[in-house]
């Protein structure tokens, strides 16, 4: 059974159709890249998979481990293993990052019927993960993403991904705003999570990221559909020739 | 015509209330005279209602309708059920002073205060004829308010605390008001005097023992803060959800002194907290913060008057309301800057968070500025929880209620963070968490 199956998905936002019958199948252990021009609907797809309100699904379905994802609340999806690293992570002043991480992790574990982490075990785990991503401890004491640079926000997303150990990771433009060193650290963090039980969907505009996170499949999205799929060479081709050839379609 | 016919009837009922309570009210001679004068004032004006400007959003004639009969002095059963409430609500190393149904309960209170503190029951002082002219304990000149008059007339007991010069208390003083009876009223009057250079923390809690319902808590506290002294003041109104709490604080701040105050109201069907804070010496600062956490049909009113009577003082007010269902929150903040009070800095910022369409927040800032070299300002916002923040938290596995709870805590945190002591701040956060937990 595929991990994720998006079938003929049609989505509207404020009466306007954004996704016009999008299909995508992702198996365990695979890394997929989605590329496509601005406004083609990449973030929309990631939001609909994560359960963001405000999108109207007018057709098609999304199955996750064979279950109807669209029937689930966002927190149920998270507990079942769906993780979205946001293109624009929000700032939440007054909610300490540590408190948030512990509340979220334990909420997911509780929903799965697992025991909650004790404080010392939790702290140990966060420290390890933070150290591997070069995230200083004092950042974790601040409000969620408050005063974080663009790159730090993205690294905080990868930190959460490593902590929650989801089975499907969707990374929406993880590379935007990262300098070359930060990109390598974040990509190493992502690669460390590659496993036969986990799949990744990497949304990006730049082939460069795919040198670090090498995909099994590359999809081109245009105007709310997947218009072409191929292997990693497709990304190089796009880098050379742009999206113009697909826009006509 | 109707008014003329109705009013004497209410006034007669009110006078019967006082007559019935009379022999339970401590003090004679000048004390009785002060009570009588105060009662006459209340009986003549009656419960405040919407035509009285200061009470326009909190019409007690409709919300309270009448003053309940005086609660009986607590018996053994009352004290036993109060004891349970004390353990449920009082945490940490505070020095407890417990008032049960308006009467000091030494058996439930801590016995030996730290050196530098004298603690007495108001009743003992008023009844002790050797101590001359105790009527001044009941008089206040700070405000002409009918509910203060009623409190003066009816106060059965209270705590009188004196902190000696330069004494720096290490434990908070915690006055716990516990109601054990239903459909009755308790009236308390407490005083705290900080001599020059003294430092203290005063916590006041209002709670119900199990089963107490539809009662009224009427309280006044008079706080004197000496020169170079500092008071941290925390009030937690967690009364039963069908109770009423009408409270006043009258605060006088000396020179180079600090007053740091936080009122959190999460209980009572109808509540009013009015604080009259006056600077009487230069170079002082007051932080006067408030949090209303209300749902159902709760009505909570915080009304503050910051009186800058002298130059070179600063005050900062931060108020947060979180409102669900049909709850109604009122904030009225008046800053008075007297003609001599140059270099005054007065700020006021209120924010309301509406969790439902039926909730309502009224905000009335008033600046009365009679000096020219001052800096005063106020601001207000009102809004719902940010959907994108909620979604971020839910995408990480938090349920809708859990996500709301974190955002609500962050929202009220801006008012609570002025409580510098970690332990005390945790006590306040504990009260907020009880409200959040009760929402389910
Ligand atoms: N809330 C919304 N209201 C109206 N239009 C929206 C909304 N969200 C997305 N859209 C529109 O949907 C289209 C797809 O947007 P989306 O953010 O999914 O594109 P994207 O492929 O992620 O683009 P980018 O590469 O710039 O991140 C755009 O035309 C956008 O304007
Ligand atoms: Mg996007």
TrEMBL record, chain A:
The keyword Metal-binding does not apply. One of its GO terms (molecular function) is ATP hydrolysis activity. It holds the Pfam family ABC_tran. Keywords: ATP-binding, Nucleotide-binding. Gene3D superfamilies: P-loop containing nucleotide triphosphate hydrolases. Residues 4-248 form the ABC transporter domain. NCBIfam families: sufC (TIGR01978). Belongs to the ABC transporter superfamily. Ycf16 family. Involved in beta-(1-->2)glucan export. Transmembrane domains (TMD) form a pore in the inner membrane and the ATP-binding domain (NBD) is responsible for energy generation. This is ABC transporter ATP-binding protein. It comes from Nitrobacter winogradskyi.
UniProtKB/TrEMBL annotation, chain B:
InterPro entries: Fe-S_cluster_assembly_SufBD, SUF_FeS_clus_asmbl_SufBD_core, SUF_FeS_clus_asmbl_SufBD_sf, SUF_FeS_clus_asmbl_SufD, SufBD_N. It comes from the Bacteria. Residues 178-411 form the SUF system FeS cluster assembly SufBD core domain. GO terms for biological process: iron-sulfur cluster assembly. Residues 17-175 form the SUF system FeS cluster assembly SufBD N-terminal domain. Belongs to the iron-sulfur cluster assembly SufBD family. NCBIfam families: sufD (TIGR01981). PANTHER family: PROTEIN ABCI7, CHLOROPLASTIC. This is Fe-S cluster assembly protein SufD. It comes from Nitrobacter winogradskyi (Nitrobacter agilis).
């Amino acid at each position: 059974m595929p991990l994720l199956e998006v079938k003929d998905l049609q989505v509207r936002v404020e009466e306007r159709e954004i996704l016009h019958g999008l299909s995508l199948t992702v198996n365990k252990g695979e890394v997929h890249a989605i590329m496509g021009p601005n406004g083609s609907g990449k973030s929309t797809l990631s939001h609909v998979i994560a359960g963001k309100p405000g999108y109207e699904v007018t057709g098609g379905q999304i199955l996750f481990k064979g279950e109807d994802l669209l029937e689930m609340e966002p927190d149920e999806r998270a507990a079942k293993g769906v993780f979205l690293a946001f293109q624009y992570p929000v700032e939440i002043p007054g909610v300490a990052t540590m408190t948030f991480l512990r509340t979220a992790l334990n909420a997911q574990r509780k929903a799965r019927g697992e025991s909650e982490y004790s404080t010392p075990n939790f702290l140990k785990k966060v420290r390890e993960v933070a150290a591997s991503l070069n995230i200083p401890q004092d950042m974790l004491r601040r409000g969620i993403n408050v005063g974080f640079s663009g790159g730090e926000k993205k690294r905080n997303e990868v930190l959460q991904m490593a902590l929650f150990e989801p089975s499907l990771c969707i990374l929406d433009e993880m590379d935007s705003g990262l300098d070359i060193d930060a990109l390598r650290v974040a990509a190493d963090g992502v690669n460390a999570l590659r496993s036969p039980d986990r799949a990744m969907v990497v949304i990006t505009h730049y082939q460069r990221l795919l040198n670090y996170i090498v995909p099994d499949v590359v999809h081109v999205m245009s105007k709310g559909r997947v218009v072409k799929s191929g292997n990693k060479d497709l990304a190089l081709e796009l880098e050379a020739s742009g999206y113009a050839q697909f826009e006509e379609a | 015509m109707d008014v003329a016919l109705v009013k004497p009837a209410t006034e007669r009922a009110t006078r019967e209330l006082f007559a019935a309570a009379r022999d339970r009210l401590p003090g004679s001679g000048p004390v009785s005279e002060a009570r009588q004068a105060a009662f006459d004032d209340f009986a003549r004006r009656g419960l405040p209602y919407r035509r009285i400007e200061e009470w326009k959003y909190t019409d007690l004639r409709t919300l309270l309708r009448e003053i309940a009969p005086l609660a009986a002095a607590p018996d053994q059963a009352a004290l036993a059920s109060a004891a349970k409430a004390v353990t449920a609500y009082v945490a940490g190393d505070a020095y407890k002073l417990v008032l049960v149904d308006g009467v000091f309960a030494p058996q439930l209170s801590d016995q030996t205060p730290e050196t530098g503190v004298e603690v007495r029951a108001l009743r003992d002082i008023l009844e002790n004829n050797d101590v001359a002219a105790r009527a001044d304990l009941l008089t206040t000149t700070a405000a002409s308010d009918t509910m203060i008059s009623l409190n003066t007339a009816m106060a059965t007991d209270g705590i009188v605390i004196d902190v000696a010069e330069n004494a720096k208390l290490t434990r908070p003083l915690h006055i716990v008001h516990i109601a054990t009876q239903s459909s009755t009223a308790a009236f308390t009057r407490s005083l705290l005097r900080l001599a020059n250079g003294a430092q203290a923390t005063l916590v006041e809690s209002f709670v119900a023992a199990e089963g107490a319902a539809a009662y009224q808590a009427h309280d006044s506290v008079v706080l004197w803060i000496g020169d170079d002294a500092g008071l941290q003041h925390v009030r937690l109104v967690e009364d039963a959800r069908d109770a009423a709490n009408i409270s006043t604080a009258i605060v006088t701040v000396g020179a180079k002194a600090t007053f740091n105050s936080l009122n959190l109201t999460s209980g009572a069907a109808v509540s009013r907290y009015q604080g009259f804070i006056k600077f009487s010496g230069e170079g002082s600062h007051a932080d006067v913060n408030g949090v209303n956490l209300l749902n159902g049909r709760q009505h909570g009113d915080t009304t503050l008057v910051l009186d800058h009577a002298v130059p070179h003082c600063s005050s900062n007010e931060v108020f947060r309301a979180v409102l669900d269902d049909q709850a109604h929150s009122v904030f009225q903040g008046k800053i008075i800057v007297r003609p001599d009070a140059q270099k005054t800095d007065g700020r006021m910022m209120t924010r309301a968070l509406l969790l439902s369409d039926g909730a309502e927040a009224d905000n009335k800032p008033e600046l009365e500025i009679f000096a020219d070299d001052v800096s005063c300002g106020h601001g207000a916002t009102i809004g719902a929880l940010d959907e994108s923040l909620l979604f971020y938290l839910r995408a990480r596995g938090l349920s809708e209620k859990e996500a709301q709870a974190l955002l609500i805590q962050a929202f009220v945190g801006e008012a609570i963070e002025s409580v510098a002591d970690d332990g005390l701040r945790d006590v306040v956060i504990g009260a907020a968490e009880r409200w959040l937990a009760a929402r389910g």
